[in-house]
Every structure is written in C-alpha cells, then in structure tokens.
C-alpha cells in the first residue's frame, strides 16, 4: 500500500467515524438542553416556554414549541411527575369485547382531536369482559399512572364512579349514572331516540313494534326502555318482545331471534334497533335483514325499521332504513374536553353534555321520505 493510499484510507475512516458519531447523536433523546442549544436560549427559559408560561414572550414560546415538535421532544414522565405531580396521560378504559372495531376507532379519533393543543396523551387500557371492572381503574389510580380516566358502559349505580370519586381521580363517563351524585359525563339521549323512533313508525301506520334493546343493567338500557314504553302508550301501540337477545348479541344470535320473531302470529310490523355492540358497524342491520329474508319478509312492505346510526356513511345494503344519527367522533371530542376541564377545575355543571336527537331520516335509493 502506498503512502497516498494510506492517507486516503485515513480520511475515509475519519469521515465514517464522524458519520457514525452524528448518527449516534441524532438517536439520542432530545432534552431541554438540546432545544436551548439549538435556539441559543437558557434551559430555564425553554422549560417555561414548553409549559406555555405566559411570562415568556409569545414569539419565544412559539419558537421553542416548534423546535420541540421538530426534534420530537417529549418530557420525561418521571421528571414531570416529580415537578408537578402530573403525568399528562389520560386513559380510556374498556372491556375487550365491548367496542372493538369502528365504534372504538371513531371514539379514539374524537378523543385525540379533543386533546390536540393540550399537553395530554391518551392510552387505551382494555380488560377482560367478565373480570372486576374496578380492577383496571384501581391499578391506574394506585400506580399514579394517569391524570384522568374515561369509562363507558355506565351502570345506574356504577362502582367505578363511586371508587374514583372516593379517590379524588378526575374522570368522565360516556353515559349517565343514577347515583344522586354530580360528575362529568357525555351522553346520547337514548330515551329521546326511542321516543322519536316509535313516533316515526306510528306515523307510518305500524301497530306492533319490537325493540332490540341494550343489555339490561346498563343505564342506556333503562333510558331506551323508558322512552320506548312511554311512546308506545302515547300512540296506543302493541309491543312484540324480542326474547333472549340484546344489541350486544352476535350477528347469528340476532338473525335467529328475528327469524323466530317474524314466524309468530301476529308478527311485528316495526323494528327498532338501539345500536351499540355489533350494530356499531352495521352488523345488527345485516343480522335483522338476514332474519327477515329467511322468512320472506320485505322491508318497507311487511315491516319498517328504525336504527341508531353511528356513522354518516353507513351502507344501506340494498334496503331502506330509517336512521337516527349519533356522532360518536364528536362524542370523543366532548369526552376529552370534559376530562381536561375537570382537571383544570371547571364547574361540573359545565362538564355535562346530553345530546338530544330530534330527527329521523330515511336512507334509501328511493324517493320515499319521512
């Protein structure tokens, strides 16, 4: 090897070493000092700007926060907890068989949108369906892992709510309790949904109605049944009960139950699906449609259907259905806003949202309208 060859090799080796060092440096987790060095500011100033301290000039805060995003800076959870007693983490807790699929996706999208511009991040904590529902809440509280919790599938006397109140944990419920205590919630008025659904079918001349209700033991079951029963009395209609299933039942279970329902005499001429469970993605409508087809019943002729619709573009599958829309993505945004508001100390009365539906719409390729 010549002297020139050695020199070239040395330069190449030096360059490669520098590249490796740069890569190693770039892989290091950025710190407040990284941001401070990049902007020529003090670490204390950067720390206060990250926390959006109003005593720091707005232009400086923006520069620091922009640089933090560019460098993918995230504060140390352990350090944050030591300094502030907070984690900036919120948790959505749900059972593993409860809302897996599009419904859950839309709720999470909404919560994420609602947390945009705040320091909070979301984690989802599932738990087995038939285990103690308080257990995951207790774990989060005792480990001080989160600043707030979101729960759904609310019971009239929900033990999770009672526990979080006792522990002083910030929380918001997707649904209302009947415990005589005030707490943050976001809920869809299922009593109003049932009432306007019955009214719609009564106006179509239907006389015998069946309700695919939520599971007994949940608050929105009670609300739905109360609205349904009151409207049935008001309009002088007859209920034909659906036996042995709820809207948590599988598609096959709903199909078989509808088939059996339509084979009895007299059969119902109107069906109301309160959604939730498999119907969150249109599954209940498919099941109902299949059960009706099994016995030759024609939708729009032999029976009309009103269903809660959780998505604006739910397929109609070739038949016409009357729908009441529930915007679950907005529900997610409202849940996030309520929980952050609770943490910030806003009055509970400002953190309670009840969405009241007023419209039943016909979704069909025909010109028939409600």
Automatic annotation (TrEMBL):
Residues 30-84 form the HTH lacI-type domain. GO terms for molecular function: DNA-binding transcription factor activity; transcription cis-regulatory region binding. Coiled coil: none annotated. Keywords: DNA-binding, Transcription, Transcription regulation. It comes from the Bacteria. It holds the Pfam family Peripla_BP_1. This is LacI family transcriptional regulator. It comes from Rhizobium esperanzae. The lineage of its organism: Bacteria, Pseudomonadati, Pseudomonadota, Alphaproteobacteria, Hyphomicrobiales.
């Amino acid at each position: 090897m010549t002297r020139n060859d050695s020199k070239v090799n040395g330069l190449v080796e030096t360059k490669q070493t520098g590249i490796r060092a740069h890569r190693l440096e770039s892989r290091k987790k950025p710190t407040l000092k990284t941001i401070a060095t990049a902007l020529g500011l003090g670490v204390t100033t950067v720390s206060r700007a990250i926390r959006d301290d109003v005593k720091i000039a707005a232009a400086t805060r923006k520069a620091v926060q922009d640089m933090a995003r560019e460098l993918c800076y995230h504060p140390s959870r352990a350090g944050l907890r030591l300094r502030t007693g907070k984690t900036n983490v919120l948790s959505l807790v749900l059972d593993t068989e409860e809302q897996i699929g599009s419904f859950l996706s839309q709720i999470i999208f909404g919560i994420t949108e609602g947390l945009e511009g705040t320091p909070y991040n979301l984690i989802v904590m599932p738990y087995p369906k038939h285990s103690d529902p308080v257990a995951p809440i207790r774990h989060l509280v005792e480990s001080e892992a989160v600043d707030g919790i979101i729960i759904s599938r609310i019971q009239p006397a929900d033990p999770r709510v009672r526990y979080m109140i006792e522990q002083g944990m910030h929380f918001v419920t997707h649904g209302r309790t009947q415990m005589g205590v005030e707490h943050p919630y976001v809920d869809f008025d299922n009593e109003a949904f049932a009432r306007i659904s019955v009214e719609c079918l009564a106006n179509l001349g239907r006389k015998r109605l069946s309700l695919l209700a939520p599971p007994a033991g949940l608050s929105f079951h009670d609300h739905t049944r109360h609205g349904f029963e009151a409207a049935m009395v008001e309009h002088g209609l007859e209920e034909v009960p659906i036996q042995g299933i709820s809207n948590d039942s599988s598609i096959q279970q709903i199909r078989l139950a509808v088939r059996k329902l339509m084979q009895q005499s007299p059969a119902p001429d109107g069906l109301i699906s309160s959604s939730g469970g498999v119907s969150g993605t249109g599954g209940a409508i498919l099941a109902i449609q299949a059960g009706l087809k099994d016995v030759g019943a024609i939708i729009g002729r032999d029976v009309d259907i009103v269903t809660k619709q959780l998505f604006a573009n739910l397929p109609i599958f070739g038949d016409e259905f009357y729908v009441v829309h529930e915007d679950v993505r907005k529900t997610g945004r409202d849940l996030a806003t309520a929980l952050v508001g609770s943490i910030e100390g806003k009055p509970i009365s400002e953190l309670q949202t009840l969405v009241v539906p007023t419209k039943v719409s016909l979704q069909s390729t025909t010109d028939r309208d409600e």
